Amino acid sequence: MHPAASVVFFTTATGAGYGLLGLLGVLGGLGFVSADFWLGLIGMGLALGLIAAGLLSSTGHLGRPERAWRAFSQWRSSWLSREGVASVATLIPAGLFGIGWVLFGRTGGWVAVAGLLAAVGAVVTVCTTGMIYASLKPIAQWHSPYTLPGYLIFSAMTGSMLLNALLQAFAVGATAIATAALLLTFLGWGWKLTTWRYNDALEIATTANTATGLAGGTVRSLEWPHTEENYLLKEMGFRIARKHAAKLRLITQVLAFALPALLLALAFALPRPFAAVLSVLAAIVQFAGMLVERWLFFAEAKHTVTLYYGR
């Protein structure tokens, strides 16, 4: 599949934003994070900013962005529409939680309820985003048991890394949050390696023979449908060289998992302000690595429509 920059940024930014929002809603609502004005303002601003930037960038892949609002009407059958509804619904409790924290300086009572509802909405929205891809049967690399859990793991991983950076920057760093970010990074690394191994060994059941119903012999096209690239080949027949994919996989492992884990481990051993600087750097590096990971997620996927073109 063609890895459009707008969709790559969308899935990365919203995943991190909803991960951070969910953690702030739970930990703030339960009193594990103090109701500090600047922490709440920057934390909620970063979470909602990433979500808004991601959602706005996703419209760049639409042919008619001004008609994007119509997608909300198909929530009964479309995971894309459900994602839109869930994202808008989540903004209501998230906004109330942010107002209570920043303007009223509290995270208990009704503010805590709003925070917990925002966390639930964040999880639901990430699930709907993952299901957009996991529900597509023509793309075997996405229609697998690894896609939806991967979205949840990466959202929690990047969100916890951002939260740890915020807490370290405000000198209220909690060892539990840093430990969780480190463990989730290793979990995400293992999950990504397992997903790649699954996809590399994947045998696509559909062939030109099964597609035409001609079981005997080998079906081949006498004349190709087009003499040059068309929309389907550009969007669904995108191909990446194996050596380039191997390099990008290595870059993903270094930037998204190995280097952030190393920086976080060093932050454990060093005092402020070094720990804060390393924590912020780990969050930035991991976000960059996840952009590469998302690019590969799209580029390595193969749509069965390319059988029609002999690919």
Please provide a written account of the structure.
- The protein has one domain (5-214, 229-309): Formate dehydrogenase/DMSO reductase fold, CATH 1.20.1630.10.
- It is globular and about 70 Å long.
- It is mainly alpha-helical and 311 residues long.
- The longest helix has 28 residues, at 242-269.
- The protein has helices spanning 5-29, 37-58, 79-102, 110-134, 147-169, 175-200, 208-212, 231-236, 242-269, 274-299.
N-to-C SSE string, H for helix and E for strand: HHHHHHHHHH
> From the 3D coordinates, which CATH architecture would you assign?
Up-down Bundle
| Secondary-structure-derived class | mainly alpha
| N-end to C-end Cα span | 13 Å
Oligomerization status of the protein chains = single chain
Share of helix among residues? 55-70%
The level 1 CATH classification is: Mainly Alpha
Uncertain residue segments: none
Identify the CATH homologous superfamily: Formate dehydrogenase/DMSO reductase domain
The chain-level mean pLDDT equals 87
Structural domain count: 1
- % residues in beta strands: under 5%
Biggest β-sheet: count, sense, barrel?
A: none
